[in-house]
Structures are given as structure tokens and as C-alpha cells.
Write a structure and sequence with these properties.
Rossmann fold; 4 domains; six-stranded parallel sheet; disordered N terminus
């Protein structure tokens, strides 16, 4: 069935230009009346993507509308041709004709589209194009759509086989670094710094990497001794596009030809996204990227692979060499399984050091999840140990702001109501012990306002567990907390050979609906005490209070090292879902955890099915992918009946495994 209108719930982010050409668009027909430039490639990708999403049969049909007898006299920007509003352009007729012949028409063919004609002129009747679609050629809408969920497959340019054959013959089995130069007389500030590129090419060739330069089209026939050039690839778009896909990596400053890389599988490193010497040129400053591309400095196109990068740096020798060396490391990593953990966006800088992690969110046990993810990423990227953790403080305190899934560079956060006393206690009694038990180290804190340049090599992560759970499902080995030997010694001295059922209580005034039902737990403890020793670990705020009739251990309530070691000596740990579970779930300690769902708190995301799905990527009944058979989320309330039933099942599984707890 052909869909006449694209579902706005599925594709809300690419809109037709206004005023509309007609009420019943045929998404297999696209009209273009703007200047002939490489921006046409973006327009063409959007048009083909919308054709596919609409269900219209191919090929995409492109028609040009000529103003004054040619393309390029006017630019309609975000407005439709029927608006009558356009900005005049000063593009020479010869340039326009060359761009149409050498860029626009090859692009149409390599997208599998066709040009239909004849071209329209300004005297056209609106009814003749009523079923055509116009799009803004700026890339922002495409970036937004490709960020959407579910993800879409972006259309890519496919050079013809004859072009690949010609390239393969020329390269004779080599995979060179392709350096594309910009050398025009327009906006010379954007041009390649040729001496920097020559210096880089000399270094690369000394290291055994073949280098091929593509000069700007106007200088295609000029040599660049002692380096190899190929005029054919400078003047023929088919050959250029095929060559880019055969390269070890393509390196160039940001300009038109980068489109053949961005919308293909060709690896690339693009430089000079920012041009401070052209403050009035929107494409060369942060504001223009934000408004036209919907991207912040440091961000990457959402459809690009790890081998396709905007560097956000100038094309100096040092930057070229650093980016290439990073590319080689990423290419090496590409042979590994892709890990589903990503940095927060926008990243703090273009060259992350995965041994350095930055944390500026509230001090809670969520930090432990963040820490496990950071250590996993350090190992995955073969970064040197130990992991180095730097806290970001506001007014000398951790936790005044929560950045959620966003980077501090985004400046998007909400203020938290944590007191300085609570923050300092959590930092001393949870976060710092966690760092030590992960084998990491703490660096001196950074204080707001932050020096983002100094933090550019640090990495930020979302502290929610979903991406870590995804990594566990894909088979990545999840790091575990390891208490120090002195803590085990102290626990062993206290237990004197016993292996108790350890019951950890939540007893705080905040969200009391989540608290342990103490009477239910005491009833359960009474029912098993003839067969198993029972030890209660009271909430930290009640560490010094006894629990009549049962043994407690205040030291385990207030000392994280002791608590973590005790959990690993327990017969089983039993508790409701709250912060201290991290010392069990990220260790070998056996556990039964209750109260994953809290219907009495319908607005608390962590206590309902949707929150577990969105934040932890888990459905009701799921288990953590790295859990052993002796580590279970029960998904039940902590009533006596549910506690006793879960414990009975635990003991049955223990018997089934011949009594081997670990």
C-alpha cells in the first residue's frame, strides 16, 4: 500500500518548506530551486529518506526550477518557492553550470534517483508542481531525525562499478591516506593550511603510510611535489566518491566534498568546523552549528561510524597528527565488539582519555554504577590503569546540580536540594570507598566555573544503569568491587566462622514507602533462626540503635568497606531495593532483593515498569545479565510470605547445585 502522508508520529522532524506546493504530496517527487552547491547532497539524502519512509516506489524524481534561466541566482533558504521570498546570490553562470554537471547530476545518479524535466522557469504554473515536495537543504532536520528512536537507515551515495574499477587500477592495491585540499579564492580563511598538510604527509610517509593529495578542482592539474596527486579524482565526482571509499582514511578541512564521505561508508577526519576569522559566517561558529545543524561543538553526526569523525580542531600539524593517531587506535578497536556505553553529549573534548572520568552529579549510590561503567570503558579502550576520577564541585559541594544524561558542557541540569553535610558524608563514606574498591584513584576536584579546555580529555557518563546492562547482555565482563583484605579480616573476626543470613534495612524518612517492612522481616528472621544465624544491618541513620531480639552490627552500617566484605561472607543477603544493593550486585555476594516496584510512589520512575524499561532497559521479571543463580531480583514486595517464598527457592537452588554456593 502506498502511504499518501508520512506518519507525523514516526517522522516529525523533516518538514516540507512553507508555503506547501500542494495538499497531497507525492514523496517520490522533489523540487530544487536553490544554488548549485554540495548542500544539494543534504537535500537529496533528505528527499530519498522521506521517499522511503512514505512507502512511495522509486526512483526518486528530482526536478530543477530555474530563476533567471539558471540555478544560483537566488536562495530560498527555509522558504518555499511559492513564498516569492529569496535572497539574491552572486554565483557566476559558469560556476553554476559546472556544479550542476559535475556535482548535482552525479549525486542524483549515485543516489539512485533520476532528473525529470525539462526544468521549470519562473513562469511555471503552481498546479504543475502541486504534488512535488521542497526541503530546506540545511542538515539540522536530518540530524534530528537520525537521533530519533527507532533509528533510521540513512541513504548513502553509491558510485558506479566503473568508478571503483578505475580507482582500483590507479591504486594498485594500496590504501592511502587521501588528503583533499581546499584552495579557493572565496573565503580564503577556510582554505587548507597546505604547509601543515605537507608536514603531516611527510611524517605519515616516513611511518609507512602512502599519501595521495586531491587538489581543489580549479588546481587539479597542478603538481604538489614530492607528493602524488590525481587530477582525475579532483574533477570527476564519480571517481572521487569511489576513491574516498577505498581510502585508509580521508582527511580534509570542512567543505563541500566532505559530503561524499559523510553520506557513505568512507572513513574520514574532518577539520576546521570553526573559523574564528570569519565571525559573520554562520557555518563557522558555535551559534551557526547550533541553529543550522542542530549540533553543539564536539558532537558527531548521529549516523556516522567511529571511523567517521568531525575533529572540531584547526588543521595544524599537531592536530592532524593527533587525530590520525587517534583514528588508528579507533580502527584497532573497531575489530572489537562495539560497546553500548557512550560518553555524555556534547563531549568535553574531541580526544577522550578513557583513563580519566569526570563526575559532577549528586553523591549517591548511583555513583557506583557510573564508576563500574567508567572502569569498563577504561578496560575496553585499553587505557592505562588506574582509572582517575575527578569530581566537579559547585560552591565547594558535590550534588548541587544533576545533569541527568547531559554533559556539563550542555549547561542543562536541575538544581538538587542536598545539604552540604549530606554531600560530604556521602562523598567520604560511599564514593571514596567505591573508588578504592574499584582500584581507581581520586584526583583533585575541579571547581565551577569549570575550565573546559583543561577537562577536554576527561569522559562523562550517564549514571543510570541501562547502558551497563546492555553491555552485560552483550557479554562484556562487568567490573566488580573488591573490598580490602583488612575488611575481610575484621568481618571474619566478628563472624567467627558463621555464615549468616544478612538482612539490610532501609529506614529513612525520605520516600518511606520504599522502606523495609520491619515487622515482616523480623517475622521471617524468627522463622529461620533455628537453622541459620541472622544478622541485621540497620540503616546508617539508625546504626547505633538495637533491634530487640536480634543481632545487629553498627560497624557494617557505617563503614562501607566492612559492609561490602560482610556481604561477600554472607549465606545470602536480603534487602529491599536501595543504594547498598550495589555492593552485592557488583560483586560475587549472593542476594535476594525485593521491592523493585513501589505502586505507592506512582511518579517515582525507579518504582514502576516504565522507569525500569527506560532507565535500566529491563522488563519486570528480568535479572541482571551478569548475575549468578544465587543473585536474584524477586520483583515482589517484602511481605513475610514473599520473603519466605524467595528464601525457600534460594535454598532449593542451592541444593540443586550440590550445596555449592559459589
Amino acid at each position: 500500500m502506498i502511504i499518501e502522508r508520512i506518519d507525523p508520529k514516526r517522522t516529525p522532524l523533516i518538514r516540507r518548506r512553507r508555503p506547501l506546493l500542494g495538499r497531497h504530496p507525492d514523496y517520490s517527487k522533489a523540487l530544487y530551486a536553490d544554488p548549485p552547491s554540495h548542500d544539494f547532497l543534504v537535500f537529496l539524502v533528505m528527499a530519498e529518506l522521506m521517499r522511503r519512509l512514505s512507502g512511495r516506489p522509486g526512483p526518486l524524481k528530482v526536478r530543477f526550477a530555474l530563476i533567471g534561466g539558471r540555478l544560483g541566482l537566488v536562495d530560498f533558504g527555509p522558504r518555499g518557492i511559492l513564498s516569492g521570498l529569496a535572497d539574491p546570490c552572486k554565483i557566476p553562470p559558469g560556476y553554476c553550470a559546472a556544479m550542476v554537471a559535475n556535482v548535482l547530476l552525479p549525486a542524483v545518479e549515485m543516489m539512485g534517483a533520476v532528473v525529470i524535466g525539462p526544468p521549470l522557469d519562473e513562469r511555471f504554473e503552481p498546479t504543475a508542481i502541486a504534488d512535488y515536495v521542497e526541503y530546506d537543504y540545511h542538515i539540522g532536520q536530518l540530524v534530528d531525525l537520525m537521533r530519533a528512536a527507532p533509528p533510521f537507515d540513512i541513504p548513502r551515495f553509491k558510485p558506479p562499478q566503473w568508478a571503483f574499477d578505475e580507482v582500483d587500477t590507479f591504486l594498485a592495491g594500496k590504501r592511502p591516506i587521501i588528503i583533499t585540499l581546499r584552495e579557493t579564492e572565496t573565503q580564503t580563511e577556510r582554505n587548507s593550511q597546505i604547509e601543515e598538510w605537507r608536514r603531516f604527509a611527510e611524517w605519515a610517509q616516513r611511518d609507512g603510510f602512502p599519501v595521495l593529495f586531491l587538489r581543489d578542482t580549479a588546481k587539479a592539474d597542478q603538481l604538489l611535489e614530492p607528493f602524488a596527486t590525481w587530477p582525475r579524482a579532483s574533477t570527476n565526482a564519480y571517481v572521487r566518491a569511489a576513491l574516498y571509499q577505498r581510502a585508509l582514511v580521508n582527511m580534509m578541512v570542512s567543505n563541500g566534498p566532505i559530503g561524499w564521505c559523510e553520506f557513505s561508508d568512507a572513513p574520514f577526519l574532518s577539520f576546521k568546523q570553526l573559523v574564528p576569522d570569519l565571525p559573520d559566517w554562520d557555518h563557522g561558529n558555535a551559534k551557526g552549528w547550533r541553529e543550522q545543524a542542530h549540533m553543539e561543538v564536539g558532537e558527531q553526526y548521529p549516523w556516522c561510524s567511529p571511523l567517521q569523525r568531525l575533529t572540531w580542531t584547526d588543521d595544524t600539524y599537531d592536530n592532524l597528527r593527533d587525530a590520525f593517531e587517534d583514528f588508528l587506535l579507533v580502527a584497532k578497536q573497531a575489530g572489537k565488539k562495539t560497546i553500548p556505553i557512550t560518553r555524555r553529549l556534547p563531549p568535553l573534548g574531541p580526544r577522550p582519555d578513557y583513563s580519566c572520568a569526570f563526575y559532577a552529579d549528586p553523591p549517591s549510590h548511583d555513583f557506583c554504577v557510573w564508576l563500574v561503567a567508567a572502569e569498563l570503558m577504561r578496560r575496553h579502550h585499553d587505557a592505562p590503569a588506574p582509572l582517575r576520577v575527578k569530581f566537579g564541585l559547585f560552591d565547594g559541594q558535590l550534588g548541587l546540580y544533576d545533569f541527568g544524561a547531559d554533559s556539563i558542557r550542555s549547561e542543562r541540569s536541575h538544581r538538587c536540594g542536598l545539604t552540604r553535610k549530606y554531600s560530604d558524608e556521602m562523598l567520604a563514606n560511599v564514593l571514596r570507598p567505591a573508588i578504592a574498591m574499584m582500584g581507581a584513584v581520586e584526583e583533585p576536584a575541579a571547581h565551577a566555573p569549570f575550565d573546559l579546555d583543561a577537562l577536554g580529555h576527561y569522559v562523562e557518563y550517564d549514571y543510570h544503569g541501562g547502558h551497563l546492562i546492555d553491555a552485560g547482555r552483550q557479554g562484556f565482563e562487568i567490573p566488580r568491587f573488591q573490598p580490602p583484605q583488612w575488611a575481610f579480616d575484621e568481618v571474619d573476626a566478628f563472624l567467627k566462622g558463621r555464615r549468616p543470613v544478612v538482612i539490610t534495612l532501609r529506614e529513612v524518612p525520605v520516600q518511606p514507602e520504599r522502606n523495609s517492612q520491619i515487622e515482616e522481616w523480623m517475622r521471617f528472621a524468627t522463622s529461620i533462626r533455628d537453622c541459620h544465624p541472622v544478622l541485621f544491618v540497620r540503616d546508617t541513620c539508625k546504626a547505633g540503635e538495637s533491634l530487640p531480639g536480634f543481632e545487629t552490627w553498627p560497624m557494617a552500617s557505617i563503614n562501607t568497606y566492612i559492609r561490602a566484605a560482610l556481604y561477600q561472607r554472607a549465606y545470602v543477603n536480603m534487602m529491599v531495593g536501595n543504594g547498598p544493593i550495589v555492593w552485592a550486585v557488583h560483586s560475587d555476594a549472593p542476594y535476594l532483593i525485593f521491592k523493585q516496584l513501589v505502586p505507592a510512589l506512582p511518579r517515582w520512575d525507579h518504582g514502576n515498569a516504565k522507569g525500569w524499561r527506560d532507565q535500566e532497559h529491563m522488563e519486570i521479571g528480568d535479572q541482571l545479565p551478569w548475575a549468578t543463580p544465587k543473585q536474584r531480583l524477586t520483583w515482589t514486595d517484602d511481605t513475610y510470605e514473599e520473603i519466605a517464598s524467595a528464601f525457600e527457592a534460594f535454598e532449593a537452588s542451592l541444593l540443586a547445585s550440590d550445596g555449592q554456593l559459589f
